[in-house]
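Quick one, probably user error.
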């Protein structure tokens, strides 16, 4: 019932323009109803709005990145995840071990890279998700699944060839 949600979400955004949640839900609704031009316009408006008055914070950026993944805007997702990750690492003074949130963002980044066909970057991001995973078994399973997704047989072969070429082997 995505089409029915659009006018409701538009009204909610008018009432609460600083709610990233309403905006990302509207992005998904536009995507599901094939309103791709409106999706791109909303992304641009959201980016501009949140870059003002201290709203461009890691949580908002990461939610926007996730919405980009959910709407097949993978290149944009990569940029937003990279920015959210960098902000979080700065705020945590480089301490990333046991950071479930950071692991989740790296998994989202790996997913976007994977769907863009960027195997090396996907493996790097998925590996980072494993390095900073949280203490729960479920969280570790998610991080490993992200790494497995980045390492399909054909992609591993391509990655091995790419590494060999970089190292002139």
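Nope, works fine. Designed sequence:
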């Amino acid at each position: 019932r995505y089409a029915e949600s659009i006018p409701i979400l538009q009204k909610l955004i008018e009432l609460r323009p600083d709610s990233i949640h309403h905006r990302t839900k509207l992005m998904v609704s536009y995507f599901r109803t094939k309103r791709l031009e409106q999706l791109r316009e909303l992304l641009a408006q959201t980016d501009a709005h949140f870059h003002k008055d201290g709203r461009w914070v890691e949580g908002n950026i990461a939610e926007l990145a996730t919405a980009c993944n959910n709407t097949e805007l993978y290149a944009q997702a990569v940029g937003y995840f990279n920015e959210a990750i960098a902000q979080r690492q700065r705020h945590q003074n480089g301490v990333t071990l046991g950071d479930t949130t950071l692991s989740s963002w790296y998994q989202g980044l790996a997913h976007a890279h994977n769907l863009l066909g960027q195997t090396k970057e996907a493996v790097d991001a998925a590996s980072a998700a494993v390095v900073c995973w949280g203490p729960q078994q479920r969280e570790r399973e998610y991080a490993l699944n992200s790494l497995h997704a980045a390492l399909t047989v054909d992609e591993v072969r391509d990655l091995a060839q790419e590494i060999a070429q970089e190292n002139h082997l």
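The two ends are 54 Å apart (CA to CA).
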